[in-house]
């Protein structure tokens, strides 16, 4: 699946994420940010656009209702941050730690999670369109009651993830790994899995598989 990449100009000025406090509105755009520490902070409806953000820490920060467009995050840590009710479009998270991140009730479009850790991350009640999870860990991630449209899981770890009330039609899980999932039988219609996974899911649904 081809997704739209972030549109970020070249030769941007370098800033510190703390500079967002000196703006008239909580907004940063058209800049490069390296090695910033922005933890345990609270921002009211911040906006980020056309940025490259690398080696930054945002642990436990409240970014709820954030709007992000055309941003690349690389080697960043968002563990236990709050990004609920967010709008995230043309954004890449590469080699990022997103452990326990709250992304509930958010909207995603053309977003890629590449080689990132999303264990215990919550996506519940979100709409995801053209989102790619690439070689990432989503152990015990929560996709409860989400809307999926053009979603890819490529070589991901999804053990214990919750897909209850989320239709998986058209979703290919065949090259990802899991021992257990939380999923409803009716939501599996049209989901692509491999033969080994079929036996696992049958067992999870209470079926007895014999040779």
Brief summary of the model shown:
The protein is built from 1 helix and 8 strands; from the N terminus they run E-E-E-E-E-E-E-E-H.
Protein architecture, described:
- The chain is elongated, with a radius of gyration of 18 Å.
- It is mostly beta strands and 211 residues long.
- The mean pLDDT is 94.
- The chain has a single domain (14-204), classed as E3 ubiquitin-protein ligase SopA (Pectate Lyase C-like, 3 Solenoid), CATH 2.160.20.80.
- The chain is built from one helix and eight strands.
- Strands 1-2-3-4-5-6-7-8 form an eight-stranded parallel sheet, with no helix packed on it.
- Helices cover 5% and strands 27% of the residues.
- The chain has one helix spanning 195-204, and strands at residues 14-15, 27-34, 47-54, 67-74, 87-94, 107-114, 127-134, 147-154.
Please give a handful of descriptors for the protein shown.
211 residues, mainly beta, Pectate Lyase C-like, 1 helix, elongated
Explain the layout of strands and helices.
Blueprint: E1 14-15, E2 27-34, E3 47-54, E4 67-74, E5 87-94, E6 107-114, E7 127-134, E8 147-154, H1 195-204
CATH architectural name: 3 Solenoid
According to DSSP, the number of beta strands is: 8
Over the alpha carbons, how many angstroms does the gyration radius reach? 18 Å
Structure class: mainly beta
Q: Low-confidence parts, pLDDT < 50 over ≥5 residues?
A: none
- For the termini, the CA-CA separation is 36 Å
How much of the sequence lies in strands comes to 25-35%
The first-level CATH class is given as Mainly Beta
Going by CATH, what is the homologous superfamily? E3 ubiquitin-protein ligase SopA
Number of helices: 1
The largest sheet, given as strand count, sense and whether it forms a barrel, is: 8 strands, parallel
The pLDDT mean sits at 94
Classify the fold: give the CATH topology.
Pectate Lyase C-like
Overall spatial form: elongated
Query: How are the strands ordered across the major sheet?
Result: 1-2-3-4-5-6-7-8
Q: What's the number of domains? A: 1
Order of helices and strands: EEEEEEEEH
């Amino acid at each position: 699946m081809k997704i739209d990449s972030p549109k970020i100009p070249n030769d941007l000025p370098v800033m510190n994420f703390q500079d967002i406090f000196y703006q008239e509105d909580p907004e940063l755009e058209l800049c490069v940010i390296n090695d910033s520490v922005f933890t345990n902070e609270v921002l009211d409806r911040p906006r980020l656009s056309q940025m490259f953000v690398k080696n930054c820490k945002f642990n436990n920060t409240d970014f709820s209702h954030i709007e992000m467009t055309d941003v690349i995050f690389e080697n960043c840590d968002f563990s236990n941050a709050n990004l609920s009710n967010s709008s995230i479009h043309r954004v890449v998270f590469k080699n990022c730690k997103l452990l326990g991140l709250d992304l509930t009730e958010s909207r995603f479009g053309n977003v890629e999670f590449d080689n990132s850790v999303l264990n215990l991350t919550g996506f519940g009640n979100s709409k995801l369109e053209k989102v790619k999870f690439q070689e990432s860990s989503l152990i015990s991630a929560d996709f409860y009651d989400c809307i999926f449209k053009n979603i890819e899981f490529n070589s991901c770890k999804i053990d214990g993830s919750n897909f209850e009330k989320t239709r998986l039609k058209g979703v290919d899980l065949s090259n990802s790994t899991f021992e257990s999932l939380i999923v409803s039988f009716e939501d599996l219609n049209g989901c692509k899995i491999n033969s080994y996974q079929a036996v696992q899911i049958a067992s999870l649904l209470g079926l007895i598989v014999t040779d």
